[in-house]
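Hypothesis: this fold can be encoded by more than one sequence.
Test: take the structure tokens below, design a sequence, compare later.
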């Protein structure tokens, strides 16, 4: 199985970038990963333009997980169960999408097979990237029985 992260823009803050890189490195010990950064929208563009760029980066055979404020809010253990299920059902590649500041377009939301919310709270996109990577790392730690999750 492979994880792919598709998100809008770059992580510009060096401190968030350092955390992102650290959890990406840790997660990469369990699963092959890569990141696709989609260009930020111009002021005259909306979520639909971003959505077209996101969908162009996603293959029809990939399992898509959208981070969505209205998505499921699994516990860390439930997220680990999702990952185990993906492994057992031989998901070749799981794509995690984080849309732009205006959210994902309806077309991207329709394409998603699973929608996840990280919290009832709102985070910046840079924070959301780090939290997602950390929670995926934590889920693998739970699966493997490592003490990190405690």
């Amino acid at each position: 199985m492979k994880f792919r992260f598709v998100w809008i823009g770059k992580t510009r803050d060096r401190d968030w970038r350092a955390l992102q890189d650290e959890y990406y490195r840790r997660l990469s010990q369990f699963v092959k990963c890569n990141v696709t950064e989609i260009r930020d929208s111009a002021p005259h563009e909306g979520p639909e333009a971003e959505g077209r760029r996101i969908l162009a980066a996603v293959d029809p055979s990939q399992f898509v997980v959208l981070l969505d404020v209205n998505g499921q809010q699994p516990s860390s253990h439930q997220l680990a169960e999702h990952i185990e299920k993906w492994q057992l059902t031989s998901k070749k590649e799981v794509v995690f999408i984080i849309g732009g500041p205006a959210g994902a377009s309806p077309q991207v939301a329709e394409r998603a097979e699973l929608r996840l919310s990280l919290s009832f709270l709102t985070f910046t996109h840079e924070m959301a990237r780090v939290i997602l990577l950390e929670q995926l790392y934590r889920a693998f730690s739970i699966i493997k029985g490592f003490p990190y999750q405690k």
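Residues 142 and 150 are 9 Å apart (CA to CA). The radius of gyration is 15 Å.
Hypothesis status: open.
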